[in-house]
Design brief:
The structure is a homodimer.
Chain A (H helix, E strand, L loop, with lengths): L1 H20 L7 H8 L3 H7 L3 H24 L6 H23 L6 H9 L4 H27 L8 H21 L3 H19 L4
Chain lengths: ~200, ~200
């Protein structure tokens, strides 16, 4: 049983590494099996398709993002604006650590897969949609708290949370296109400044 | 000669359609040839590799974006803030028109290819970098004009232009992930509001 469940986990970890570094379409079942050191029969014991494996990988990424990053950034013990600052800082730290390890700045696994797959695979699109909604919900709650404590002026917090998440993903894309971690850091810091500025007037 | 140059153009147009709808890795030379109705020998007469064809497709997309969209939006006859508004409006109109035609909201061809390829292909990454720099330069010039006419307070216009372009690409990604053109429209309209708000105070 131990070895069996190791094989499943190795397949998931391998999919996360290879697909994050390259793309969904570029990584086939054969390569995923070789990377994990499992036979094709084993693969199909755990997963019906590459899609199934990637849905499992998305669950692991999501669990990791929540546990390692989002729960820390969005801890209600932090003042609201510090939560947003920390969210962008962790985003930078995470990518810097991955760059240190792999020599490559691969960006957001959710954003990458969303761009590649959301017009081609409804199950993958729906899962990423749910993940995006989770983080947008956390951003909205933070903005609601900031408005309630009069740190920000009243605003449509749902729309602003969507705009903030879009900004975060866009900064990741632009910085990735330049392989420029410093840009990720600098533009991340601007998020709170934009908010504070726009929060001065109700939107 | 007429038929020969038609074949080259058909290959480029086909690459633009198929890769925009799916991805670089998912579309092979065989399918590109079948779609264009040309033999493989013809393909290799014009292009050494799929990469070569995609670099040519990027040039065509860029020429199209400049001629159809950016030159209109960034016309110096428009007041600066109207240029930015128009830039986001055209972005929406373009995607809405494509959705009308294809039933699919595929987003930005540059952003899509950047996310997929910039860690894997230096020539594609460098070309997209140059395209991104072109649009960031136009946004910076617009912000410089707005600051010079005291519509916006003094700011680091280069960094703000980068932030604005990141926001634009992020909005495209998020709206694409939901296949939600209305979100693209609404969040686009927020760009000018953010700027005006943050422009009130020098950054």
């Amino acid at each position: 049983m131990g070895r069996t469940s190791d094989a499943k986990e190795r397949l998931i970890q391998g999919a996360m590494a290879l697909i994050h570094a390259r793309s969904y379409a570029d990584v086939g079942v054969q390569e995923l099996c070789e990377h994990a050191g499992v036979k094709k029969g084993s693969f199909y014991h755990f997963f019906n398709t590459k899609q199934d494996l990637v849905l499992a990988a998305l669950d692991e990424w999501w669990a990791f993002a929540k546990e390692r990053n989002w729960n820390d950034a969005f801890s209600p013990t932090r003042p609201p604006m510090e939560r947003i600052e920390r969210f962008f800082e962790i985003n930078y730290e995470q990518n810097a650590a991955e760059f240190e390890q792999s020599g490559q700045f691969s960006g957001c696994p959710f954003g990458n897969l969303s761009i590649e797959m959301c017009c081609q695979d409804e199950a993958i699109r729906a899962k990423i949609h749910a993940i995006f909604d989770d983080v947008v919900g956390r951003l909205k709650q933070t903005l609601d708290d900031a408005v309630a404590s009069k740190i920000l002026a009243p605003m449509d917090t749902q729309e602003t949370a969507l705009a903030l998440w879009a900004y975060c993903e866009g900064v990741l894309m632009l910085a990735k296109s330049r392989q420029d971690l410093d840009l990720l850091h600098r533009l991340g810091k601007r998020a709170v400044r934009f908010l504070q500025a726009s929060g001065r007037k109700a939107t």
